[in-house]
Amino acid sequence: MPDDRALEVLTRSAAAFARDGTIEPALEELLAAVTKTVGAGSGAIFAQDPDRPAIELIASAGFDDEASMAAFAKTVAENPDHAIRRTIADRAVTFDATPRAPGATGLRSHLPLVVTRDGVDLPLGVLAVAHDAPLDEDSRRLLTAAAQLAAVGLDRARLASLVAERSEWFERMAHMDPLTGLANTRTFSRVLELELARAGRQGGEVSLAVFDIDDFRSTNEAAGHAAGDDVLREVAAVLAESVRLVDTVARYGGDEFVLVAPGSAGMTVARRVLAGVAALPEVAGRQVSISAGVASFPADAGTAEELLAAAERALAEAKASGSGTLGEARSQRTR
User: Which residues of the chain have pLDDT under 70?
Assistant: First the structure.
């Protein structure tokens, strides 16, 4: 494989990535050129968001028809031990491997698509090719460069998507609670519906936590409403500092707050909130504490209303056990 041919492939692909538009056409162009140049019979690029479990075939080359391509994508998605899935998990390059699938012939090469941010590796997918003969050193270098270029392209598209989502989020945050600066109930409801819909499409999870300041009425009566407002602002600040970028916190009532946490980290984040509130200074000789109930979609509920009800039940059980307590919903869906 002449070096100038490889340079031409990478130059044209880089130009494709630089153009505006969706990432898929650029990846298709890169994959088609690379598979042809290295003499591979077929190739595929799979993408996976680091924050979500689903894996998706987004570019392919050399498949006989749509049906065979779809069957291959399904096999990879449903088999966590598939070589492509293991490449993402292990982040290890494999060249000239013998396929394990019954009846499969030839050789396989798999390259993880990884970017590094703040010293942390983010696996974004896999570039895979099937070929008959072992790859020479030039072909391996071209595939490595192509995988790096694809990773940068995927990361660019992912960041653009996050920016768009953040812009939408900030627009929603125009509907803020004026006292605490957190989202209000209307924004919370929109975010929860959005995250549940996304999780439903992608087979993911969403955690919902409901927080209630313990004995807040007594604090108001003992120290006055101004001091009570300060407590609300301080608790809100702890919430805002304890959550992740992808989480949303809102004031849900007089002394109640809610957290929408994509994924399964709701209990972990809630524990951070309780610990942070427990470290706040006393007000009128009273220790500030907060209790919480956490529920998860789809394990505990299938709709926003059911999820909120499950978290409220968990909160009630937690408060019955004492101040500063965290409760977790017990699934009602199988009862």
Answer: 1-4, 6, 20-21, 51-53, 169, 171-173, 331-335
Over the stretch 148-181, which tens digit does the pLDDT of each residue have? 999 988 888 888 777 777 777 676 567 788 899 8
Contact (Cβ atoms closer than 8 angstroms) between residue 46 and residue 125: yes
Structure tokens at 28: 């298709």
- What residues have CB less than 8 Å from 166, skipping those under 6 apart? none
Task: Identify whether 99 is preceded by a cis peptide bond (ω within 30 of 0).
Answer: no
Extended strands (E) in 214-255: 248-251
| Torsion sign, CA atoms 266, 268, 269, 272 | positive
Pairing type for strands 256-262 and 206-213 reads: antiparallel
Using DSSP's 3-state secondary structure scheme, residue 244 falls into coil
Of 125, 34, 121, the closest CA to residue 73 belongs to 125
CATH 3.30.450.40 fits 3-165, yes or no: yes
Could you give the percent of the chain with pLDDT greater than 70?
A: 93
CATH superfamily for 173-328 is Reverse transcriptase/Diguanylate cyclase domain (3.30.70.270)
Give how far Cα 164 sits from Cα of 157, 160, 244, Å: 11, 6, 18
pTM score, two decimals?
Answer: 0.51
Q: Distance (Å, rounded) from C-alpha 229 to C-alpha 255?
A: 10
In the chain, the N- to C-terminal Cα span, in Å, equals: 64
Of all residues in the chain, what percent are helix, strand and coil, respectively (each to 5)?
Answer: 50, 20, 30
Report pLDDT for 172: 58
Cα distance between residue 333 and residue 331, in whole Å: 6
Greatest C-alpha distance within the chain: 82
pLDDT digits (tens, 9 = 90+) for 59-83: 999 998 899 899 999 999 999 899 9
